Amino acid sequence: MQPRCGVSVCHVLMLVLCLSAAEDFDWTKNNHGSFYYGTFPTFSWGAGGSAYQTEGAWDKDGKGLSIWDVFSHKKGKIQLNDTGDSSCESYYKIKDDISLMKEIRLNHYRFSISWPRIIPTGVKDHVNGKGIQYYDELINHLLENHITPIVTLYHWDLPQQVLQEKYGGWQNISMVNHFNDFANLCFEKYGDRVKHWITFNNPWSVAVEGYETGEHAPGLKLRGTGAYRAAHHIIKAHAKVWHTYDTQWRGKQKLVGISLSGDWGEPVDISNQKDIEAAERYVQFYLGWFATPIFHGDYPQVMKDFVRKSVQQGLGTSRLPAFSSQEKSYIKGTCDFLGIGHFTTRYITHRNDPTGRSSNSYFTDRDLAELVDPRWPDPGSEWLYSVPWGFRRLLNFVKTQYGNPMIYVTENGVSEKMMCTELCDEWRIQYYKDYINEMLKAIRDGVNVKGYTAWSLLDKFEWDEGYSERFGLYYVDFRNKNKPRYPKASVQFYKRIISSNGFPNQREVENWRRKAVEMCSSSNQLLAAEQRSTAANILRLIHPLTSHMEMVTEIVVPTVCTLSILISAVLLMFLLRRRN
Ligand SMILES: *[C@@H]1O[C@H](CO)[C@@H](O)[C@H](O)[C@H]1NC(C)=O
Ligand SMILES: *[C@@H]1O[C@H](CO)[C@@H](O)[C@H](O)[C@H]1NC(C)=O
Question: What are the start-end ranges of the E strands in 185-235?
């Protein structure tokens, strides 16, 4: 009797395990609680940036052209026709930037390796020694200062000349092998010191903005097909690199993951099944598009169902490419940790595309409408509303959908509008405080979050938005050719969170905020003085009536602020009317 009993216990256990593995995320459970005071378990605090956004030195020391060099040099693609040519000049400021990280006692720094800096053409015929050396120095200095490097291999800067121009970039399946060669070189050169690798940063953006809308490099508008095809190749490339690492380089505590971005989608009406399904589609078409193949081997069923609709239009095959069964098992499980980039949330409602399906696109495939609550704060980028509770829900979704993987938050932060520049960024303090708190609640829910990366360390080149949006904990004066950095109030606040490893109690946290704001006003004066003298010097060169001109600039800045507030108000009204 004993063995049989054992078997049945085993069965019950298995059943329980199966049930919990198949546990569904509950879309109707809504728990926006109050602020939670407490500390984190063993945790890694960091900040990040990426090569094209910060390095500058776009044509120095043998670097090849990337698709972003070429794209940003075309007029009309980037706000004010700005480029990343010099950006923060981080290429020359390794020591300065690391001292900023030390100042706030970061545990890790996330950066990316520019592929064309170390392999100028992209195909491994020639390796650029000076490029190799730059990242060697960066990694060594980080380690000397006890800061763990978390390294992204692909943060959007594909080599231009051969890979994009001749081969068509991510539309071409051969990128899988070229990317694997590049990744293998990085493992060989840096893997003795780098233990955390991220294959791709936000492939959603690469696919949709690079190949569907064309807002990002390479600027292609292959509506309805380009994004799906690019994503298909990116997923295969990720899997191949993970296998290369797994078979050739893995020692102990060495991890390869991917960094996926995803907004949270909340049903407008949680009692309406159609809205719940639409919200799920929103998240599945965003995060799930990449996470589901990597964790379960294939695209989300809902994507296969909704993209396949084109079959009825006589296209014959789905615009969503399919994985063979061999590919599915090769791709499944290729993730030692999941990087999550998260900034904002949308309300989602079901909507059939009014234009019908004559114009296929990634966006119309989803049959939904995105809405925002006008009460949500939106201090910076027009898409970025502060909705902290959405973060907790997304993290819980990841836990239930993908078997509670190890998570590093690889990007989270908020921008500000260019003209209203202020070092006393209380709204950013509020954003970080609330989002980090929701992450703490998620960890208490059982989500396996191991680290957090504030996005970003410095103000930097924000892709098609140029320098018009600032995400930094440190302000960078881009008009000054030395690109000096100034601490914002938020960096003081973040430093306190790091040193306390959480939020000890209300009084203390309130104290941090007050002190941070006090400290920043002196930095503010310093910055203002610097900027006045820079502006005065420039004006003196071009105009003798300097004092008159200075007055004008002082009037212009507040006017631009007022104007942008007015425009936002009008846009908001417009949005509200559309919503009704
Ligand atoms: C950017 O370049 C385009 C094309 O040359 C030009 O029309 C536009 O005015 C420029 N924008 C700015 C802000 O300089
Ligand atoms: C894809 O890349 C390969 C080289 O890796 C090249 O031979 C081929 O022509 C490319 N295909 C297209 C359509 O550009």
Answer: 196-201
Would you call 411 a catalytic residue per the annotation? yes
The single residue of 89, 266, 280, 411 carrying the catalytic annotation is: 411
Ligand with smallest separation from the Cα of 162: 2
Residue 193: count of CB within 10 angstroms of its CB: 14
**Residue whose C-alpha is closest to residue 55's, from 127, 190, 157, 191:** 157
Domains in the chain, number: 1
What are the residues whose beta carbons fall under 8 Å from the beta carbon of 324, sequence distance 6 or more?
none
Nearest C-alpha neighbor of 307 from the set 291, 333, 334, 288: 288
Look at the chain and count its residues: 580
> Is residue 556 domain-resident?
no
- 38 within a domain of the structure (yes/no): no
80 CB within 6 A, ligand 1:
yes
Evaluate whether residue 579 is within a structural domain. no
Ligand 2 pocket test target in 121, 165, 166, 181 with most atoms within 8 Å of CB? 166
State whether the beta carbon of 74 lies less than 6 angstroms from ligand 1.
no
Distance, CA of 82 to CA of 378 (rounded, Å): 24
Residue 465 CA to ligand 1 centre (angstroms): 14
- We report the CATH number of the domain holding residue 512 as 3.20.20.80
Ligand 1, residue 81: give the atom nearest the CA. 1
Q: Report yes or no on 374 lying in a domain.
A: yes
Pairing state between β 368-371 and 345-350:
antiparallel
User: If 0-12 CB within 10 Å is exposed, 13-18 middle and 19+ buried, where does residue 556 land?
Assistant: exposed
Strand, coil or helix: 233 = helix
Q: What is the pLDDT along the chain (580 residues), one digit of tens a residue?
A: 333 333 333 343 333 333 344 456 776 665 667 899 999 999 999 999 999 999 999 999 999 999 999 999 999 999 999 999 999 999 999 999 999 999 999 999 999 999 999 999 999 889 999 999 999 999 999 999 999 999 999 999 999 999 999 999 999 999 999 999 999 999 999 999 999 999 999 999 999 999 999 999 999 999 999 999 999 999 999 999 999 999 999 986 689 999 999 999 999 999 999 999 999 999 999 999 999 999 999 999 999 999 966 545 555 688 999 999 999 999 999 999 999 999 999 999 999 866 655 578 999 999 999 999 888 888 777 788 999 999 999 999 999 999 999 999 999 999 986 544 578 898 899 999 999 999 999 999 999 999 999 999 999 999 999 999 999 999 999 999 999 999 999 999 999 999 999 999 999 999 999 999 888 887 778 888 877 776 665 544 444 333 333 333 333 344 454 556 666 766 766 666 665 4
**DSSP string across 133-194:** HHHHHHHHHHHHTT-EEEEEEESS--BIIIIIIIT-GGGSTTHHHHHHHHHHHHHHHHTTT-
- Taking phi over 0 as left and psi of -120 to 50 as alpha, with beta for the rest, 367 belongs to left
Angle formed by the axes of helices 388-401 and 289-296, to 10°?
A: 30
**359 vs 208, 225, 569, CA distance in Å?**
16, 11, 32
Domain that includes residue 513, residue range: 44-541
Residue from 162, 167, 170, 182 to probe ligand 2 pocket by mutation (most atoms less than 8 Å from CB): 167
Q: How far apart are CA 277 and CA 513, in angstroms?
A: 40
